[in-house]
Design goal:
CATH superfamily of the largest domain: Periplasmic binding protein-like II
Distance between the termini: 49 Å
Radius of gyration: 23 Å
Number of helices: 12
Number of strands: 12
Structural class: alpha/beta
CATH architecture of the largest domain: 3-Layer(aba) Sandwich
C-alpha cells in the first residue's frame, strides 16, 4: 500500500471535496481522483458517492478512516516533525479526554481558534475516563494528547496546569412555588436537590468544595451531567447546584433563576494534564497554548 494513497484518502474524508483535498495536499484534482481510483481497486469499494454538488463517504470508507487515522497520523508526524509542528500545514488529529460538561465550555472556542490558525488539523474530544488508572494509561500510551479534568493527576511523569475555575451557583425554576426573589440557607436545605457528581471530585461536587461539611440534603436525582440537571430543574421544583458558566448559558432558554450559594465554597477548578513524553512535541505544545489562550477569559 502506497502511504500517499491513504494520505490522499484522509484529506478527502476531512474536506469532503476532491478539489479542497487537492489544495490541502498541493497536488491537482486529477491526481486526487487517480489516487482514489487506486484505492477503490484495492478495497473493491466505491469509497465516495455523489451527493448534491459534493461527495459523501460510503460506510466502508467511514470505517476505514477510523481504522487508519491514528496510525497514519503517527506515520506522517514522526519525531522530527512533531518537534517542528507547523499549525498552518499540519493534518494531525488531536484527541482530548474530557467530560461533556467541560466540553461545552472548551470545545467551541478551541475549534474556532484552530479554524483560524490550524485549518487542516482535527480535534476530537471523544474519550471520557471513568477510572484514574485509565487516564494514566491513555496519556502514557499516547492514546490521548491531553486530559481536561477537575482534579490533578499527581503521579510521577505527568504534568498539570491550571486552566480556569468556575464559581458554584444555584439554579431554580422561575416558576418555583416557594423560591422567587431570594434563596436562604433554610430554603436550601428544605428543598429537594439535583446532585451533580464527577468521577474525579470525590462524592458530590459541592461536598468536595464547600468550606465546611454540608449537612444531609434531600436528594431528588443524582447525575454526572450538568446539562441534564439544569433541564430537570427547569421542569420541577428541585434545585440544582451548578457552575456559573452553565447557569448563565442556559438560564434564559430554560427559564431559570440563579442565586448565590448561602455559604462559602471553593470554585470548581479545571486542569490540563499531559505526559512528560509529550513535553517536546510541538503539536502538543501548540494545543496546550491554544487551550490556555482560548480559556483566558474564564480565569
Amino acid at each position: 500500500m502506497d502511504l500517499n494513497l491513504l494520505k490522499t484518502f484522509d484529506a478527502v474524508m476531512k474536506s469532503e471535496s476532491v478539489n479542497d483535498a487537492a489544495d490541502i495536499l498541493g497536488i491537482t484534482a486529477p491526481a486526487v481522483s487517480h489516487a482514489l481510483n487506486r484505492l477503490r481497486d484495492q478495497y473493491q469499494d466505491p469509497l465516495f458517492i455523489r451527493q448534491g454538488r459534493g461527495i459523501a463517504p460510503t460506510n466502508f470508507a467511514i470505517e476505514l478512516h477510523v481504522e487508519i487515522q491514528e496510525p497514519l497520523s503517527l506515520l506522517l508526524n514522526g519525531a522530527i516533525s512533531r518537534q517542528d509542528f507547523d499549525p498552518l500545514t499540519s493534518q494531525r488529529t488531536f484527541r482530548i479526554s474530557s467530560h461533556k460538561d467541560i466540553d461545552l465550555i472548551v470545545v467551541p472556542p478551541i475549534v474556532d481558534y484552530k479554524r483560524k490558525h490550524a485549518p487542516n488539523i482535527m480535534i476530537k474530544a471523544d474519550v471520557e475516563h471513568q477510572y484514574y488508572h485509565e487516564r494514566q494509561d491513555d496519556l502514557r500510551h499516547r492514546k490521548v494528547d491531553l486530559i481536561l479534568a477537575t482534579a490533578l493527576l499527581e503521579d510521577h511523569g505527568y504534568h498539570n496546569q491550571f486552566l480556569f475555575e468556575q464559581q458554584l451557583v444555584i439554579a431554580v425554576s422561575k416558576h418555583h412555588p416557594r423560591i422567587q426573589d431570594k434563596l436562604t440557607l433554610t430554603d436550601f436545605f428544605n428543598e429537594y436537590h439535583l446532585l451533580w457528581s464527577t468521577k474525579t471530585l470525590e462524592n458530590y461536587v459541592l461536598n468536595s468544595l464547600a468550606d465546611e461539611d454540608i449537612p444531609h440534603r434531600k436528594v431528588a436525582y443524582a447525575t454526572g451531567s450538568l446539562s441534564t440537571a439544569l433541564v430537570m430543574a427547569s421542569q420541577t421544583d428541585w434545585i440544582c447546584v451548578t457552575s456559573s458558566w452553565h447557569a448563565n448559558k442556559m438560564c434564559d432558554a430554560l427559564d431559570l433563576n440563579i442565586f448565590p450559594l448561602p455559604f462559602a465554597s471553593k470554585k470548581v477548578p479545571i486542569y490540563m494534564t499531559w505526559h512528560h513524553s509529550q513535553r517536546h512535541d510541538g503539536g502538543n505544545k501548540w494545543l496546550r497554548e491554544a487551550l490556555i489562550e482560548t480559556t483566558a477569559a474564564l480565569r
